[in-house]
Design brief:
Order of helices and strands: EHEHHEHHHHEHEHHHHHH
Shape: globular
Largest sheet: 3 strands, parallel
Structural class: mainly alpha
Strand content: 5-15%
Number of helices: 14
Strand order of the largest sheet: 1-2-3
Oligomer: single chain
CATH class of the largest domain: Alpha Beta
Bound molecules: adenosine-5'-diphosphate, tryptophan
């Protein structure tokens, strides 16, 4: 079974990225042949600074390796090192109805936020379809917000298979319901584009400040809070703390007499210690960037041998041979 996922190098990774996508992807390494890549072509739709992109790619690579991606077991690479992705994108794009892309939530959200769209932003899901189909991927671990993009991929693959004969495997999204949507500091989905993130490798002081300034309601400390499970800090605590500790804090909040300040302090401490071993590993890796570059270039070589075979299969199917 082939597993594939990607992440854009568009800024510091946060708890939503980690619990929604990175951790499930890392856990799946043992269950099949995993391909994970840094989607630097995708980042071109919204980031226009070359040096920043270079730096972000390196940061994501360090983050992923520090969090447990094992380059011996998984194929880890940069998207742009496998240019067949863009070649396949063109073949797919000619079978993609405009309406399918117009309906994509992530595109519509960006328009609603006043972003003036470039063609790449509109065609984003087709490049993502090529990323997935070019490895004959079966399982795609992502957060819930990417589900529709995987559905678009399925539609395009089915259409291609009908038009040109069986060529692609039809993939499936794999979404962990327990962490499908990690809330941000304002209660909306945590996202770099909403400015409500808690970074996994931020430094201690800013992290503490961010957590301590989480906005809570105005109920007094003594008041019982029967809806404790809805509290953002409780929800985040469940992700990073030992289950007994998270349950204890939630119970105390429910009972009353437990202040939000204590809760936030517990969240900060749990968050800091959860990522401690990974932070140390990241520091080690950062001293050896050559190793990281080598992992990516070896990964690209392995990825490219699969991608070029599938790309040729698609070219043959549609008469481009
Ligand atoms: P962002 O919204 O911060 O730009 P990305 O779109 O780059 O994040 O997401 C990268 C991966 O992390 C995707 O698989 C996405 O589904 C997952 N992800 C991002 N934010 C969350 C969240 N708040 N909850 C769960 N998964 C998330
Ligand atoms: N669109 C994904 C995101 O923003 C990143 C991505 C690009 C991806 N290509 C992919 C995810 C292929 C899974 C499979 O998070």
């Amino acid at each position: 079974m082939r597993i594939l996922s990607g992440i854009q190098p568009s800024g510091m990774l946060h708890l939503g990225n980690y619990f929604g996508m990175m951790r499930p992807a890392i856990e799946l390494q043992n269950q099949g042949e995993a391909y994970y890549f840094i989607a630097n072509y995708h980042s071109m739709t919204s980031l226009f600074d070359a040096e920043q992109r270079r730096q972000n790619v390196l940061d994501v690579a360090l983050d992923f390796l520090a969090c447990g991606l094992d380059p011996e077991r998984s194929v880890f690479f940069k998207q742009s090192d496998v240019p067949e992705h863009t070649e396949l994108t063109w073949m797919l794009t000619t079978l993609t109805p405009m309406g399918l892309l117009e309906r994509c939530h992530s595109y519509k959200d960006k328009l609603a936020r006043g972003i003036s769209p470039n063609h790449g932003l509109f065609a984003y899901p087709v490049l993502m379809a090529a990323d997935i189909l070019i490895y004959d991927s079966k399982v795609v671990p992502v957060g819930k917000d990417q589900k529709q993009h995987v559905e678009v991929t399925r539609d395009i693959a089915i259409k291609f298979n009908q038009q040109y004969g069986d060529t692609f495997i039809i993939p499936e999204p794999q979404i962990r319901e327990d962490v499908a949507v990690v809330p941000g500091t304002d209660g909306q989905k945590m996202s770099k584009s909403y400015g409500n993130t808690i970074e996994i490798f931020g430094s201690e002081k800013p992290l503490k400040k961010k957590i301590m300034s989480l906005v809570m309601d105005s109920r007094g400390m003594d008041e019982p809070k029967p809806d404790a499970e809805k509290n953002i800090a409780v929800q985040l605590l469940k992700l990073v703390a030992e289950p007994e500790l998270a349950k204890d804090c939630e119970d105390q909040l429910r009972a009353g007499g437990y202040g939000y300040g204590h809760l936030k302090k517990a969240l900060f401490e749990a968050c800091w210690s959860y990522f401690e071993p990974m932070r140390q590993k990241r520091e080690e890796l950062a001293k050896n960037i050559d190793f990281v570059q080598e992992v990516l270039s070896k990964g690209a070589e392995r990825a490219r041998s699969v991608a070029s075979a599938v790309n040729n299969r698609a070219k043959n199917a549609c008469g481009l041979d």
